[in-house]
Structures are given as C-alpha cells and as structure tokens.
Amino acid sequence: MRIGELAARTGVSVRALRYYEEQRLLSPERSPGGQRTYPESAVDQVLMIQHLFTAGLPSRSIEPLMPYVRSREVAPELVERLTAERERIDGRIGDLVRTRDKLDSIIAVVAAAAHEGRPCPRPEGDLVAHHPR
Amino acid sequence: MRIGELAARTGVSVRALRYYEEQRLLSPERSPGGQRTYPESAVDQVLMIQHLFTAGLPSRSIEPLMPYVRSREVAPELVERLTAERERIDGRIGDLVRTRDKLDSIIAVVAAAAHEGRPCPRPEGDLVAHHPR
DNA sequence: CTAAAACCTGACATTGACGTCAGAGGCAAG
DNA sequence: CTTGCCTCTGACGTCAATGTCAGGTTTTAG
User: Fold this and answer.
1) pLDDT value of residue B71
2) Residue of chain B whose alpha carbon sits nearest to that of A41
3) What is the pLDDT of residue A78?
4) Which of B48, B90, B100 sits opposite A90 (nearest CB)?
5) Is the per-residue pLDDT at B99 higher than 50?
6) What is the distance in angstroms between the Cα of B96 and the nearest Cα belonging to chain A?
7) Nearest residue in A to B93, CA atom
8) Burial of A42 (0-12, 13-18, 19+ CB in 10 A)
9) What is the pTM of this model?
10) What is the 3-state secondary structure (H, E, C) of A61-111?
C-alpha cells in the first residue's frame, strides 16, 4: 500500500511516516516511480511505534528494537535493552502514580474548603513534593 | 535567598528558575539592586513544580494551580482543573502500564528464544498494538 | 490524453523546557 | 578601590516529533 493509505489506516500523518523512515523505524520499498510501498505488516508496526512513543521512548530507543519486530533475529543485547526500557517505563509509572496521589490529597483539601467555608488551610508540607532524589 | 542558592538546594538550574518566573510559576521579590530574592517556601514550590513537570504537565497547566500553593484562596474552578489534570495523569498511567505489559510479553518471547535455540518465533499479533481507538 | 489526486524532496516553522553566550551591573572581602 | 563571584537582561541554540509550504513528478480516473 502507499503512504496515504497507511496514514489513514493508522491515524498517523503522512509526514510522520516519512519521519519514521528517516529514523529508520520503517524501511518501505519503492515503486518504479519512486513512491513508497508498504506491506500489510507496516500497519501493526506503525501502531507499535506509536505505542512506544506514547510511552515516552525517543526514536533512538525504538530503532534498535525494530529489527525484532521486522525479522526474527535475536541480537545479543536485545533482551538487555528491552529490559532497560521496561525499567524506565516502570520508573515513570511510579513517578506518575506518586504525582497523581499528591494531586488527590490536594483535591481533597481544596474540595473540603470549597464545600464549607471559603478559606483554605495552608498546605501541610505533605502536599508538597519530597523528592527521594 | 538568591537564585544560585535556590538552584543548588533544588537541583534545578538557574536558567530554569528564571524560566519558571517567566511562566509565572514563581514571583520572587527583587533586592534594591534588582536581584531576585526567594523565601524559604520557594524550595518546596520548586520541587512541586518539578514534580508536576515530570508528570508531563505543561507550565500552562501548572500556572493556574500555583495560587493555591502560594496563598490560600480557593478559585471557583480550581477543583475542576485539578480533577481534570488528575484524569489526564491517570490516562497516561494507563498508557504506560499497557506499554510496559506489551514490552513484557515481547521480552518473554525473546528471552525464551535466546535461552534455547537461536531462531525467534514470529510475533503473534498480540505483541503488536491493538489500539482500542 | 488530460486533469485531478496523491506523492516526491527539501527546507523552514513550531512547541516546551531549558542551555549557552554576550555584555553589563551588584556585592562582599581584602 | 579592586578583585572575583554572583546576578542581570536579551537573544539565539537545541532536541523531538511533527506541521507546513513550495515546486515538481507519478499515478489514477475519466
């Protein structure tokens, strides 16, 4: 299929698809006229790429993971790299959960104040970040 | 305290602190000579800001939340805004968890292949994103 | 065959959270 | 008063993942 169809089927812009190629995340064939030609499998690959992007991985991190998605070679360090990325994501999840919980306590205090009288109690330290460093 | 000390105590660069002021996340006083002077409480505020940044909130979203941290006024829509941000974060956590789990299945398959023989089975579709749209 | 639609390359624009540099001024110690 | 460090403003640079535009080619529909 050509680039427009792939874009339509993945919800990703044409520009983005060309960018993915530039970053060597995709390697489409070319028609005699020079137009990109993608196989069916490209749809899933693009969705996978989007998935990893939303996880905060930069294309540099995704690129070395693509050979596995495409062929079936097992590069030596592949498991390590995958695991490293997994840990990174895990860490970010932890950060987000902590931040969400912190927001929850703030919401509780503010909501209570708004519900009753106007004045809102001073933040009690706990509401403020304690970076474990 | 002056900007250098605040930077040292928070681990944030001087440039970043000036940027925060530009975004109206901080409003330090000025010494007669024009230098920024921060109260003790700025340390916690900066840590809070960092916390929200790492949660993926842009400064535009953080700015309307700062009045609560500083004074104790309860703006009318504050609870709504806080809740909206909470939901955003919650969504991102969901994304990350799904991505992590997907990575986990990939790791399992690759690790098994690497452990035994070389060739790695073809990805079984499940390993690739199925966007619920 | 022709016009429209889709595609091509190349390049500059954008957004956010800063980095970095230039040139000038403030401030404590000796 | 001078040295040296910290700070100031202003402005341009960076990085990532695109958006957008220009000018030209390929493919498709009629």
Assistant:
1) 59
2) B125
3) 75
4) B100
5) yes
6) 5
7) A93
8) buried
9) 0.74
10) HHHHHHHHHHCCCCCCCHHHHHHHHHHHHHHHHHHHHHHHHHHHHHHHHHH
